[in-house]
Inverse folding.
């Protein structure tokens, strides 16, 4: 892992009172190295390649910690297993019906503002989850 990334991971964990551990680093590294919204099982398979001793329970724990520290967000599709996304910029997802893949779609500041402007008085959004479904040609 690059020094700056390792430092920002450590800082983000420490801000939430968590210690950086080699396992947390491994899981985070796996997530940022291939941004294809893997499931916990897929993260586990990839972690095992670099850290053969790691257990599925540890991977789950690490994912939970990374989500709690706002380093990774969960992507939930109905009745499907949770997927994990390390992209913390405001973005929407596009779920391709044909391949089952989830793609990141950038949300411009204007689009973000326009969505927030839909909220009636008294609703304060802390985030937007927007998923397109269809087919990516
Ligand atoms: Zn994403």
């Amino acid at each position: 892992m690059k020094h700056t990334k390792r430092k920002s991971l450590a800082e983000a964990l420490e801000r939430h009172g968590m210690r950086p551990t080699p396992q947390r680093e491994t899981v985070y590294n796996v997530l940022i190295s291939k941004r294809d919204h893997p499931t916990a099982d897929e993260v586990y398979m990839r972690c095992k390649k670099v850290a053969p001793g790691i257990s599925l329970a540890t991977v789950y724990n690490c994912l939970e910690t990374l989500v709690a520290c706002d380093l990774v967000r969960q992507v939930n599709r109905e009745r499907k297993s949770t997927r994990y996304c390390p992209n913390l910029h405001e973005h929407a997802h596009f779920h391709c019906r044909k391949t089952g893949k989830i793609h990141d779609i950038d949300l411009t500041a204007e689009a973000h503002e326009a969505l927030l402007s839909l909220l009636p008085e008294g609703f304060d959004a802390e985030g937007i989850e927007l998923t397109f479904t269809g087919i990516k040609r």
About this structure: Strands lie at 73-75, 83-85, 91-96, 102-106, 131-134. The mean pLDDT is 91.
